[in-house]
Request: fold
Amino acid sequence: MKESTVSLFYKSKPYRIVAGDAKSGTLSHAYLLVCPDGANLRAFLKELAVLVAGGDERRDRLIREERFADMAVIPAETGGKIAVGDVRAVIDDAYVKPLESDRKLYVLDALQDANAAAQNKLLKILEEPPENVYFILGSTNGYAVLPTVLSRVKKLELVGFSEKDIAAALKEKFPYREDIAEIAAISGGNLGKAEELAGEGSLTELSAKAAQIALNLTASTAVEFARGLVSEKVEGNKFLPLLRLAFRDMLMLRLNRKDLLLFGGERAVLEKAAKRYDERALVFSQEAIGQAERNLKFNANPAMTYETLFIRILEGR
Reply:
């Protein structure tokens, strides 16, 4: 994990909670970190494992490298899925005495992808774990975790980081990017998403498209724009946050707060577009875009999602 990412996680509430439990000697036998940042979840879990292990620099390093003898990280490879057989192996191993410390650790990553059978297999050992055995579970969302599992763990939630903190981390990792503030603003507090965007090409073309749609959206162009986004295979998880940011900056222009603008380009276009909406409509439009983002996340039809969104924006105007 990059130093900037480590520092960011150290500021988080879940990290502070586990650090406090370790310091006071009140560690839970099982923690569940719910964090939408799947790209960094495994690394975050290992940082919590460092706290639970309570070791020295050598142990900390081995935990981060997934080479500590008294810790297992499951699945073995990033991107894998926890199977019933993996859980069975954990249960068998948990009753074996640790090799070089006084406790054993099991880090279970991506629990959201584990099926009900695998999660159910965990229940008994989570309910009655052997002495000095600790579980650190991670999931990108809490809804995918069985209620029976949730009732047996201490739940920690990391919704996201502030735009300021994400921007600072990105500047350290991607010093050549000039659109750091824009990327941080559309990341939704998700560091992994921000890092992915920063590692890709420029957002200039997509930003321009969002600005032009905001300016030229009418009843006669709504369907055309929706179909165009689909035919051009525009990625909704990038376009919609940029569109939301465009409407956010249009609101700032209406409020005469140019000092708060974040949209990277197309300032002249946004200034023209802002004159077509009042403040109430701009607030409503951002809410509508947020709903469209959630719909696409749950596999809604892209063409229908865009068309419905554009109609809602027009109705709000």
Q: What stands out?
A: The domain at 202-316 is CATH 1.20.272.10 (Zinc Finger, Delta Prime; domain 3). The longest helix spans residues 236-254.
